[in-house]
Each structure stands twice: as structure tokens, then as C-alpha cells.
Write a structure and sequence with these properties.
Blueprint (H helix, E strand, L loop, with lengths): L7 E4 L5 H12 L3 E6 L3 H15 L3 E5 L8 H11 L5 E4 L20 H28 L3 E8 L10 H21 L4 E8 L5 H4 L4 H11 L8 H11 L11 E4 L7
Parallel strand pairs: 1-2, 1-4, 2-3, 4-5, 5-6, 6-7
Pfam families: adh_short_C2
GO molecular function, one term: oxidoreductase activity, acting on the CH-OH group of donors, NAD or NADP as acceptor
Family: Belongs to the short-chain dehydrogenases/reductases (SDR) family.
């Protein structure tokens, strides 16, 4: 099992779903964990207290509006006051609700504003977050950066054109980042999940349809869970993945080859 004692992870969107599972996975392995939240400071602070109590590591939470990626710079200044170094960065936060109106729906109903918001939260946020993280990871002697993605850019998923197109774009950006950051001993990869059973997915109006179709397509006959992706992220940040960069690791229960 990877031992991350003395290492530090920074992840965006760490208070629920996939992000929360990743935070706990790394803390369990001994890593200090910093994460962002969108609105609920109480939830974030409860997590910080729980993590520090259970795992004996350092944890901090920072508020971030992912639709304003440039504010990552201010967040990382706060991070620098709390932590001496950074080893891993995971770009995970997503948007939902009113911000994606016009971006989530059938192709003929897509609108530029919703699509642009998804681009900002997916691609721009990855770029700015990675730029800030890479400066600090380089100072630490190298490490790993991951963007979360989804198989909605590989196979047709109803109402997902806006998200799927942007996930394809961020995977391309990952490859470019990997090519340019390798000489700094920084590996950059993406983790692409099939439909994962989270609160965000349950908010989709066609959740029941997505769940049934995922279970039908998967040879394993089930939906994915956040823990299915957290283990993949832990692997990609470990020494065992030391020669993996510019790659998209698909974790989909076999749903994309059916």
C-alpha cells in the first residue's frame, strides 16, 4: 500500500462525492490534505476536524468559486501559510444547478452561456489550478497532477454533450501539460469515470435512466462508486505509477466497450 506520510495533497471540490472519497483515501495513507469547498464552511470544517482526529494528519479547507479560476491564486497563497510544500494536485470540482442551464440538455437546446460556464469550471480551472500547483510541486522535487474526467466524452450519454465535449478538451489539456511539465518531474494524468453514484448524478433529471443503462452495460452489473475512482487517483500519485504521464485511466466497469 502506498505510504504518503509527509506528502501533501490539494484537491478542488473535496466535501462530497468523488472529491470527499479522494480526501479520505489520501488521509488514510498518511498524506496531509487540503481541499476546497463551494459554500458550506461548516461541512468543510467538520471534515477537517474528523480527518485530523482519525488519521493524525494536517487538513485545511478553502473556499473557492470554480467559476472564477483566477481566484486559485489567492487560495494558494492561503495554502502557503498552512503548508510547507505540495506534492499532489487533483482538479475535481464541478458545477451544477443554474450555472449549467444551457449546457446540460439535448444538443438543440444548448446555449453559449451554459457551455462557457462548463468550460470555465472544467478547462480553465484545470489550467489555472495546475499552473499554481506546478510551481509548488516543482519546488518539492516533483509529484503528480490529475484532472478528473468522464467517459461521457467517449460514448453518447443523454443531455451530456456540454460536459462531454469539455471533458474531451480537458483530457487534451492534460496531455499538453504532461509534455511540458515532465522535465520538472511532474506527471500529469486524467482519471475518467463511468457514471458514478454521487449526489451530483442523483440530481440529474434522468438519474434512474442513467443508472439502469449503466447497470445493463457493465459486465459487473452495477454503478460505479466514488471509492472506485479514489483508488485510481492514489495509484497515479504513487511511485508505482512513476512512468505513467499524459494518460487517461478509464474506470468505467467495462461500460465503454459494450
Amino acid at each position: 500500500m502506498a505510504d504518503f506520510k509527509g506528502k501533501t495533497l490539494f484537491i478542488s471540490g473535496g466535501t462530497r462525492g468523488i472529491g470527499k472519497a479522494i480526501v479520505y483515501k489520501f488521509a488514510e495513507a498518511g498524506a496531509n490534505v487540503a481541499f476546497t469547498y463551494a459554500s458550506s464552511a461548516d461541512t468543510a470544517n467538520e471534515m477537517v476536524a474528523d480527518i485530523e482526529s482519525r488519521f493524525g494528519v494536517k487538513s485545511r479547507a478553502y473556499k473557492l468559486n470554480i467559476l472564477e479560476p483566477e481566484t486559485y491564486k489567492d487560495v494558494f497563497k492561503e495554502f502557503d501559510q498552512d503548508f510547507d510544500s505540495l506534492n499532489f494536485f487533483i482538479s475535481n470540482a464541478i458545477i451544477s444547478g443554474r450555472a449549467v442551464v444551457g449546457g446540460f440538455g439535448p444538443f438543440m437546446r444548448l446555449k453559449p452561456k451554459g457551455l462557457n460556464n462548463i468550460w470555465t469550471a472544467t478547462v480553465d480551472a484545470f489550467v489555472v489550478g495546475t499552473q499554481e500547483a506546478a510551481k509548488r510541486i516543482e519546488q518539492a522535487g516533483g509529484g503528480s497532477i490529475i484532472s478528473m474526467s468522464s467517459t461521457g466524452n467517449l460514448i453518447y450519454t443523454p443531455n451530456y454533450a456540454g460536459h462531454g465535449a469539455n471533458k474531451a478538451a480537458v483530457e487534451a489539456m492534460v496531455r499538453y501539460a504532461a509534455a511540458e511539465l515532465g522535465d520538472k518531474n511532474i506527471r500529469v494524468n486524467a482519471v475518467s469515470g463511468g457514471p458514478i453514484d454521487t449526489d451530483a448524478l442523483r440530481a440529474f433529471p434522468n438519474y434512474d435512466e442513467v443508472r439502469a443503462e449503466t447497470e445493463r452495460r457493465s459486465p459487473l452489473n452495477r454503478m460505479g462508486f466514488p471509492e472506485d475512482l479514489s483508488g485510481a487517483c492514489k495509484f497515479l500519485c504513487s511511485d508505482e505509477a512513476g512512468w505513467i504521464t499524459g494518460h487517461t485511466l478509464i474506470i468505467d466497469g467495462g461500460t465503454t466497450f459494450q
